[in-house]
Amino acid sequence: MKYKIFKYIAGCFSLAIVTTSCVNNEDLLQVDPNVATADSFWKTDQDAIEGVNAAYGSLLTDGTYMRSTPLLLDLKGDDTRSNSPWDAMYNVGRFNSNVSNSAIYGWAYETYYQGIYRANQVLTNVPKIEMTDAALKSRILGQAYFLRGLYLFHAVNMFKSVPLPTEIAVYYPQKTNEEGWAQVIADFKAAADLLPASYTSVTGLDAGQKGRATKGAALGYLGKAYLFTKDFEKAKTTFKQVIDLGVYSLVANYRDNFTDTNENNSESLFEVQFSRAAGGVDLGWGGAPASGWGKTSARAITYAPRAFGWTDVQPTWTLYNEFHDELTTSGAVDPRLDATMFYNKPGVKLYGQDFATFYAKNAGDLNDLFCRKYENSDGNYANEYDWRSGINERLLRYSDVLLMYAECLNETGDTPGAYTYIQMVRSRVGLPNLSTAKPGMNQVAMREQIGHERFLEFPLEGHRFDDIRRWGWLQNSTKLAWLKSRDVEFNSYATGREFFPIPQLEMDNNPGTVQNDGY
Questions:
Q1: Pair type for strands 314-315 and 294-295
Q2: Exposed end of the chain (fewer CB within 10 Å): N or C?
Q3: What is the mean pLDDT of the chain?
Q4: Closest CA relative to residue 83, chosen from 310, 356, 307, 295
């Protein structure tokens, strides 16, 4: 990984002057007093917090959660499908991303390292500042460790063997996947040691501010990193720490996790903050921030139902059917179905329109499935064509912690204990007691049950393919055949394609970089 720093020096010198004068090079390098530099910027408490705010800013652009990262996380799962006319998007779910065209995945890769670079600036410069608020200093460093860990988490998880910048340098050599996970774990551990459980009781420039990384967020991602590397004992201990904080609880209404009406709620460990009211009206496509940029997301228009947006992502019929496998205790269909997707059901409305009436003249749409999560579809907006969704992206929810903890209990020999934490998630949506419905499951049966529970709790949230990959289903011929029967996009899977290719620009700029297998 190579970073280039460009210094623009304004001047107009004739050839005669350049060749005859005795002016030294140092005399020509003048510092513009109106432009902040690294040497002049990192001086105060305010500088420190603005520096870490810039690291958060990399979560808001197209490469990350404005659009690209949700697409990359969602499209390879058996809960989604894509018929996008854009080949770069269409091919993600078909495991056919093109090495010569890095659109979408390359933008994500670039932005992760932009965020890492910004976090490294904080970690390099803030310790040198004689801050008036020592506790604030610790919190800022904790947030920088968390953000670096989060960006590295995505890079290591999605691109396998990547550079691991932990300081500001020119070149960063490619590291192994194992080394990558070790660094992710180290960053989240450092963050957890420095961060508060919340910002409601702190004083200083960040007091009471929502959206900043907390101890619970760092521990949650630390546990997730342990789980992804199959260190179930450490993952179990870490998830229990999150539970024991006593900060988090499931919200009563499942859908409240995907609208702009109940953001930063008790179930959310960490979410990306979008807002229609903040900043300008332009979308942050990437690069240096511009004054007109807003803080809005393009996810909604990308996933929106036909005629309300681009419909580049849709739920699968496999997902729809699996929601009908088990009725609630009142005999109803799992309410998460209606919170997840639109379909032709009496009374279903979208953007103030009756579904059946709106699509009556188009049988294909009338009998199709469309995304509802993260859509501004409850009647306040006519469609998503302004590209400006203000719905926060929930990256880590407490229900995920509960189900991951249950998985760890099962993998460490306490299968009976897993029932309790699975049931906490099931009870929220009125599903029967699992210990009565399926008593006495062994470890293998419980693994399958956890796969089912996670499939229905987290569709369209970027978790399903991570689960498929970490469970080794793509290397299991029986499971792979099962996935193909559920989602035809798996028919084009080839070994190694569970990871994205290293972008060609990285290959060109970082000599010695080895491309991922399968490309």
A1: unpaired
A2: C
A3: 92
A4: 310
**Domain-wise residue ranges, the chain:** 42-241+498-509
- Say which residues have a Cβ less than 8 Å from residue 103's Cβ, sequence separation at least 6: 88
At residue 34, the pLDDT reads: 54
Q: What is the 3-state secondary structure (H, E, C) of 479-516?
A: HHHHHHHHCHHHHHCCCCCCCCCCCHHHHHHCCCCCCC
Cα 342 from Cα 344, distance rounded (Å):
7
Kindly tell me if the per-residue pLDDT of 454 is higher than 50.
Answer: yes
How far apart are alpha carbons 237 and 250 in whole angstroms?
21
pTM: 0.92
CA distance 299 to 259: 13
Q: What percent of the chain has pLDDT over 90?
A: 88
**For residues 162 and 146, what is the distance between their CA atoms, to the nearest angstrom?**
18
Q: Which tokens sit at 198?
A: 């919340």
Phi/psi at 322 (5° precision): -70, -25
Mean pLDDT of 373-387: 96
**Angle made by CA atoms 358, 360, 361, in degrees to the nearest 5:** 110
pLDDT at residue 22, rounded to an integer: 40
Measured distance between the N- and C-terminal CA atoms of the chain, rounded to whole angstroms: 20
CATH class for domain 42-241+498-509?
Answer: mainly alpha
Distance CA 458, CA 220 (A): 16
Instruction: Quote the pLDDT of residue 284.
Output: 83
Give me the residues paired with residue 171 across strands. 2
Contact 221, 153 (CB under 8 A): yes
Taking residues 501-508, what's their average pLDDT? 95
Phi, psi of 262 (to 5 degrees): -140, 55
pLDDT tens column, 308-341: 999 999 999 999 999 999 999 999 999 999 999 9
pLDDT at 170: 85
Are the C-beta atoms of residues 108 and 154 closer than 8 Å to each other? yes
Buried-exposed string 423-462: b where 16+ CB fall within 10 A, e elsewhere: bbbbebbebeebeeeeeebeeeebbebbbebbbbbbbbbb
- Sequential DSSP letters for 437-459: HSTT--HHHHHHHHHHHHHHHST
Token representation of residue 355: 């579904």
Give the Cα separation of 234 and 169 in Å (integer).
33
